[in-house]
Amino acid sequence: MELLPSSRVGLDWACSMAEILRSLNSAPLWRDVIATFTDHCIKQLPFQLKHTNIFTLLVLVGFPQVLCVGTRCVYMDNANEPHNVIILKHFTEKNRAVIVDVKTRKRKTVKDYQLVQKGGGQECGDSQAQLSQYSQHFAFIASHLLQTSMDSHCPEAVEATWVLSLALKGLYKTLKAHGFEETHSTFLQTDLLKLLVKKCSKGTGFSKTWLLRDLEILSIMLYSSKKEISILAEHGDLELDERGEQDEEMERPVSSPGEPEQKKLDPLEGLDEPTRICFLMAHDALNAPLHILRAIYELQMKRTDSFFLEVQKRFDGDELTTDERIRSLAQRWQPRKSLRLEEQSAKAVDTDMIILPCLSRPSRCDQATAESNPVTQKLISSTESELQQSYAKQRRSKSAALLHKELNCKSKRAIRDYLFRVNEATAVLYARHVLASLLAEWPGHVPMSEDILELSGPAHMTYILDMFMQLEEKHQWEKILQKVLQGCREDMLGTMALAACQFMEEPGMEVQVRESKHPYNNNTNFEDKVHIPGAIYLSIKFDSQCNTEEGCDELAMSSSSDFQQDRHNFSGSQQKWKDFELPGDTLYYRFTSDMSNTEWGYRFTVTAGHLGRFQTVNPYPSWGYPHSDLCDLALLKPLWQLFTHMEYGLFEDVTQPGILLPLHRALTELFFVTENRAQELGLLQDYLLALTTDDHLLRCAAQALQNIAAISLAINYPNKATRLWNVEC
């Protein structure tokens, strides 16, 4: 296999050749020949990592979906109507493709996310049948390579990790087509299941924004033949000379924002506390950049009084005026330009799983309190599926941007070392998909124990479930959850639940606030963004005082830096500022004002959303504890008291109509489900007694006496109730 790492041609050629081989495989005259050759090559793996063997495995398990010339796709238009099309040209850097409609023969340029590649029909069926006959050998390859410790310096480390990822991909496709029942003995009778759990618990070391498909494409595009590697080896001295530069280039896009930014001096460094406070006050009050302030401070011989006088002189009412001397000196402290989107996304790096032990049960809570300053959310907003679709489109665009960036700078880095990391990351992601497929189809007669999976403890399973919730589709995740809860031993469930409680105790939603001056200045043109790594969507809530000059002063918001995607514009009085939700993890906003008339301005709160994280509905009501002594219903009493307090407050204040707070809705749902469950278990009386408080009994007794007194008064019948309430008939 000769793939050209410096050009897209290599990938297009290889994909086209793979399609030709698949077509030949479906032809009766060629089927036996290709099957014999395939069998010969696959059986030599993983011990003979020749290009021919790797390419055969790559064709067998399937190339990543690549939009190259001649690819058959389904184009989904803006009305969500499908059209059969063929790719004429693909622009990777623009995430667009030129297509021709098969029916109308019309050409059109569309976005990548609007295209879905078509399956191969009969050819696809033949491929699945061929895959299934090699499932045992895929398992053998994966087991062998997972047990073999490799680092990037091994001569065939790149090839070995590539074969590992391809073997895991073959297993994943086999499991999707045939399920676990046919292959479970292969996994249970070997150490492969344990090895998969260990591999899944490792991080990829790459940004979570990367799509698996794009990592596969990157691997193929960067791959160099042994001949090219030997040429590089002959120039080892040159490579060593460039190593520092290469390593810096290699690290920047995948794990950290980059080294140069850290080398800039901190403008507040070396200042005493009073001077530091003065800097921050001037920065906030005058909107003056800190590096400019530091330059003025240095030029005033570090005298605070002279510094303040100079700042006052240079402030013209809108901004701080500077000269060439100040700007030149300020460069020592000037931060680099804000990171591009793909570099910001790299902060959300997929790291190794760190499992914190559950040391003890949580202490008993006697009183529950509502959170202070709760973030309200719309009760009926964008549906989860809509947000997922929008997020998927965004992630596809961001991943494509990362891929394009990597391919542009690939010639400047040590390709072999970087390829090893890419293949390792791909193998980790496929290992997760394989394990998820296994757990989703776990046989009911096989217990799911710590020994079978070689978990570090029951809490390890909770961390794995959390990982799958972010990795898999909702229906697949719910199947996994059901199988795990039904298959795990009872002594594991308690610790798993405690670990889940720890997750819920962690801050579930990061909140950031942005605002203008009040009132804002004329001739403002300000642009910034809010980035919360890991968020699936962002919920934006405006302050009730938001107000700008209508039609002249405007706040624009979008999910893209060019303000073309998911754009929202706000201008005018308070009624015009409606809360909304934005897919993705980044909000771009721009505020502009003209030269006359200003109002209060804007202030908004951005809350990170994580879909499906804390659902209060029990999707499996048949589950539960088999014995009533395992249910300490009194633990719910503090929550019940908080719930009744919120209910009384709602009834008392009828002048403020609005939606329930998220906590109120969650508690309502919790007690609705709990009451049904208690009734099913025959524990309804115990449940009611557990939640009853002395204060509640006194309220009920007082209400009963009031009712008796009212009836007695109506029928003119004096008794103890009327005397108690001092009422005469």
Describe, in plain words, how this protein is organized in 3D.
- 50% of the residues lie in helices and 10% in strands.
- By secondary structure, it is an alpha+beta fold.
- Among the domains are: 10-65 and 122-222, no CATH class; 71-117, SH3 type barrels (Roll), CATH 2.30.30; 273-333; 511-609, Jelly Rolls (Sandwich); 633-692, no CATH class.
- Strands 4-3-2-1-5 form a five-stranded antiparallel β-sheet, with no helix packed on it. A four-stranded antiparallel β-sheet has the order 6-13-8-11. Strands 7-12-9-10 form a four-stranded antiparallel β-sheet.
- Helix 9 (212-222) packs parallel to helix 18 (384-409), helix 14 (290-299) crosses helix 16 (324-330) and helix 24 packs across helix 25.
- The radius of gyration is 32 Å and the shape is globular.
Detail the topology: elements first, then pairings.
Elements: H1 9-25, H2 28-43, H3 51-61, E1 72-76, E2 82-91, E3 96-101, E4 107-111, E5 115-117, H4 122-133, H5 135-147, H6 157-178, H7 184-188, H8 192-200, H9 212-222, H10 226-234, H11 236-251, H12 260-263, H13 273-286, H14 290-299, H15 304-314, H16 324-330, H17 341-345, H18 384-409, H19 415-440, H20 450-453, H21 458-471, H22 474-487, H23 490-505, E6 511-515, E7 525-531, E8 537-542, E9 554-558, E10 568-570, E11 580-583, E12 586-592, E13 603-609, H24 637-652, H25 662-680, H26 684-691, H27 694-714, H28 720-724
Antiparallel strand pairs: 1-2, 1-5, 2-3, 3-4, 6-13, 7-12, 8-11, 8-13, 9-10, 9-12
Helix pairs in contact: 3-6, 5-6, 5-8, 6-19, 8-19, 9-18, 9-19, 14-15, 14-16, 19-22, 21-22, 21-23, 24-25
